[in-house]
Amino acid sequence: MNASGNWLRYLSNTLTDGALGAAARLLTGSNFVGAAVTVLTWGAADLMARQQAWWNDSAMMILRGQIRGVKLTITPSGKDYPKVYRTLTRY
Question: For the chain, give me the number of helices (H) and strands (E)?
Fold first, then answer.
């Protein structure tokens, strides 16, 4: 898939966050909804950027020989089925 067809690319743009908030404000007539959409869009973009950076750093650490790999540990929650806890660790 080329970069122009990737909708997550648009979420990572600060101007897009505000534009989506303004569009929601116009459609709903509510400043609260516009602000909520802006914050949620920014949060999704920030989370995506942090995950991307973590994986890029991990790949570079593997190439430099600083770590051997990445381990995913899935621990079931004893109380809230089917909730699980996912933990990523570098080793």
Answer: 3, 2
